[in-house]
Design brief:
Layout: E1 22-27, H1 32-47, E2 55-61, H2 67-81, H3 88-95, E3 98-102, H4 108-125, E4 130-135, H5 142-151, E5 166-169, H6 177-188, E6 196-198, H7 206-217, E7 230-238, H8 247-272, H9 281-293, E8 306-312, E9 314-316, E10 319-321, E11 339-344, E12 356-361, E13 368-375, H10 381-385, E14 395-401, E15 405-414, E16 420-429, H11 430-434, H12 441-451, H13 460-480, E17 486-489, H14 496-503
Parallel strand pairs: 1-2, 1-4, 2-3, 4-5, 5-6, 7-12, 8-17
Antiparallel strand pairs: 7-13, 8-11, 9-10, 11-12, 13-14, 14-15, 15-16
This protein binds NADP nicotinamide-adenine-dinucleotide phosphate.
Length: 512
C-alpha cells in the first residue's frame, strides 16, 4: 500500500506523519456514515499512499454477513461516494485486508471474537498492530461498546513507542451537560484522554484549519484581532435543505444540539483563542477551552441573547416546499427549533464588548457556512466632505462551504473624475488556486487519529464547557414550548427575531 503514487497536492510534503501498523475497526459498519464517508476516506488515503504498510480494516455489526459480502458493500460505497473513481487495483489492495466481525454491541463474546481477529492479523503479518476503534453507531450504544472494549482488554493494548489503542467517537457527544458528563465518565473509565478522539468533522475542513494559519502565519492580522479594531463577529451555518428523511433524528435534536453547541462553538473557539505556545494538540486545545470558559452565561429573557424558530412553507430553488411540521416523521405540534441565533459575550481582555453572533438553520436562502470578521467602520469624514459617501466596514470572511475560500471587503475609489468610493471584494478560492479535488474532512481526521494527533478533535473539557453554556437554554426552551418559537418562510434568511437579536445592538446580519 505504501508504494502507491502520492496525490499531486501531497507531493513534496513531509512523510514524517507516518502511522504505525493499524487496524481500523468500524462499529456500525453497515451504517450510512460508514458508506458515505469512512470507507471512501480509507480508500482515498490508500490512493494517496498515506496508509501504513500494515493497514487492515475490520467491520463490526449486528448482521451476520461474510467477509466477502462486507467487501462487496464497501466496494459499492467507494464506487458511489468516493471523490475519486474506483480503481480496481487500488481497491484490491484494501479489499485484501478487509474482514468483518458479526456481533451485538452488548455481547461480551463478540468482543472476544474481535480480539481473536486482531490476534490473527498480527500472527499473519508477524508484528503487532495498533487498533483504532471508530464508533459510528447511534449514541445509545456508545457506552456498551466502550465498556466492552475495556472489559475485553482491547482498550489497553499498547505497542510501545507511544502507540496505544485509540477510539474515535462520533457525534452527538451527549444531549446536555449531564449526559456529556456521563459519557465522559464512561470513556475515562476505559481510555486515557490521549487515546480518545471526539470527532467534529468541521474541524477537518481545509478552511477551518486555514483559519489558524491565516491568524498565526500572517503578521498583518494578529495586531488587529481584538476589541480595538473588530466590531463584531458573525458565524453562519446555513443549510438549504430541510430535514428530509431524518425527521425522527431531528425531532430529538433540533438546531441548537445539531449545529450550534458543537460546530459553531468550535469555530468560535478557533476564531477567538489566544495564540497557542506551540502547534501541539494540547497547547491548542488549552487555548480553546480558555476562551470557551470566558463566554458569559446567556440571557434567556425575551430580548436577550437567544432566538429560535421553525421553518414554515416557502420556496427554495424555485420550488414550493413544505413547512417543518408537515415533513415526514415530525409531530404536528412539534416545537423543535430548525433555526437558532445566539449572541455571545466573551469576557476577556481581547474580546470584551465584541459580540459574537451565531446563526444556523435549515431551509435557509442558500447553503453557506462562513465566519465573518467585521472591522470597525472607518471614520468617513474625509470622503464625506467631498461627496457624502458612506464607507463600508472592512469584512474578512472565511467561507467554509460550499466554495471554500477567503474574502476581504475593501473600500475602493470608483474610476472617474470625482472621488467616489465603493466596497469591493478581494477573494481567494481553494478550488481555483489548488484544484477542486481537496481531501475530505474524514480523510484528514482518520489519518490524524491513526498518527495520534488530537489537534483537530474535541477534548472532554471542551465538550463539557460548551454544554454548560447551552444546557440552560435547552431547559428554558423545553419549558416554554411553543411560546417564543418564531417562524420563518422556507428559503428566507431566517425569522424576524433573529434579525432583532442583532438590531438591538445596532447590527445587521450580513448576506453571505
Ligand atoms: N450519517 C451521517 O452523515 C453522519 C454525519 C455526522 C455524524 N454522524 C454520526 O455517526 C454515527 C453513525 O451515523 P449513521 O448515519 O451511520 O447511523 P445509522 O446508519 O443509523 O447507524 C449506523 C449503524 O449502527 C447500527 N445501529 C443502528 N441502530 C442501532 C441500534 N438502535 N442499536 C444498535 N445498533 C444500531 C447499525 O449497524 P448494524 O446493524 O450493522 O449493527 C447501523 O448500520 C451517529 O452517531 C451519527 O450521529 C453521522
Amino acid at each position: 500500500m505504501a508504494d502507491t503514487p502520492r496525490h499531486p497536492f501531497l507531493q513534496g510534503l513531509s512523510k514524517h506523519r507516518g502511522a504505525p501498523p493499524t487496524v481500523v475497526v468500524i462499529f456500525g459498519a453497515s451504517g450510512d456514515l460508514t458508506a458515505r464517508k469512512l470507507i471512501p476516506a480509507v480508500y482515498n488515503l490508500s490512493v494517496d499512499g498515506l496508509l501504513p504498510a500494515d493497514f487492515h480494516l475490520v467491520g463490526f455489526g449486528r448482521k451476520a454477513i461474510s467477509d466477502e459480502n462486507f467487501r462487496a458493500l464497501a466496494k459499492d460505497a467507494v464506487r458511489e461516494f468516493s471523490r475519486r473513481e474506483l480503481n480496481p487495483d487500488d481497491w484490491g489492495r484494501i479489499a485484501a485486508r478487509t474482514t468483518y466481525v458479526a456481533g451485538d454491541y452488548d455481547e461480551p463474546a463478540a468482543f472476544v471474537r474481535l480480539a481473536a481477529q486482531l490476534t490473527a492479523i498480527e500472527q499473519r503479518i508477524g508484528r503487532e498492530v495498533q487498533p483504532l476503534f471508530y464508533i459510528s453507531t447511534p449514541p445509545s450504544v456508545f457506552a456498551p461498546i466502550l465498556r466492552h472494549l475495556g472489559a475485553s482488554g482491547l482498550a489497553g493494548k499498547y505497542l510501545g513507542q507511544d502507540h496505544h489503542a485509540k477510539v474515535i467517537i462520533e457525534k452527538p457527544f451527549g444531549r446536555d451537560l449531564g449526559s456529556a458528563l456521563e459519557l465522559n465518565t464512561t470513556i475515562r473509565g476505559v481510555f486515557a484522554e490521549h487515546q480518545v478522539y471526539r470527532i467534529d468533522h468541521y474541524l477537518g475542513k481545509e478552511t477551518v484549519q486555514d483559519l489558524l494559519v491565516q491568524r498565526f502565519a500572517n503578521a498583518i492580522f494578529e495586531p488587529l484581532w481584538n476589541r480595538n479594531f473588530i466590531d463584531s463577529v458573525q458565524i453562519t451555518v446555513a443549510e438549504e435543505g430541510g430535514v428530509g428523511s431524518r425527521g425522527g433524528y431531528y425531532e430529538q435534536s433540533g438546531c441548537l444540539r445539531d449545529m450550534i453547541q458543537n460546530h459553531t462553538m468550535q469555530l468560535v473557539a478557533l476564531t477567538a483563542m489566544e495564540p497557542p505556545g506551540s502547534y501541539a494538540a494540547e497547547a491548542i486545545r488549552d487555548e480553546k477551552v480558555k476562551v470557551l470558559k470566558a463566554i458569559q452565561p446567556l440571557s434567556l429573557v425575551a430580548g436577550g441573547d437567544v432566538a429560535r424558530a421553525q421553518y414554515a412553507a416557502g420556496m427554495t430553488g424555485g420550488k414550493a416546499v413544505a413547512g417543518y411540521v408537515e415533513e415526514e416523521g415530525i409531530a404536528p405540534g412539534s416545537t423543535t427549533e430548525t433555526y437558532a441565533a445566539i449572541r455571545l459575550s466573551i469576557n476577556n481582555w481581547r474580546w470584551q464588548g465584541v459580540p459574537f453572533y451565531l446563526r444556523s438553520g435549515k431551509r435557509m436562502a442558500r447553503r453557506v457556512s462562513e465566519i465573518a470578521i467585521n472591522f470597525k467602520r472607518p471614520p468617513g469624514t474625509l470622503f464625506a466632505e467631498s461627496g457624502g459617501f458612506d464607507l463600508a466596514a472592512n469584512t474578512l470572511a472565511f467561507q467554509l462551504q460550499p466554495d471554500e475560500g477567503l474574502s476581504l471587503v475593501l473600500n475602493t475609489k470608483i474610476p472617474g473624475l470625482e472621488t467616489r468610493t465603493q466596497p469591493v471584494k478581494m477573494s481567494f478560492r481553494y478550488s481555483t488556486t489548488f484544484g477542486s479535488n481537496t481531501p475530505e474532512a474524514y480523510e484528514r481526521l482518520v489519518l490524524d487519529a491513526m498518527i495520534g494527533d488530537g489537534t483537530l478533535f474535541i477534548r472532554g473539557d471542551e465538550a463539557e464547557t460548551s454544554w454548560k453554556l447551552y444546557t440552560p437554554v435547552l431547559a428554558a426552551w423545553a419549558a416554554a414550548g411553543a411560546e417564543g418559537l418564531d417562524r420563518y418562510a422556507a428559503g428566507s434568511w431566517g425569522p424576524a427575531s433573529g434579525d432583532a437579536l442583532l438590531a438591538r445592538h445596532g447590527h445587521l446580519w450580513r448576506q453571505p
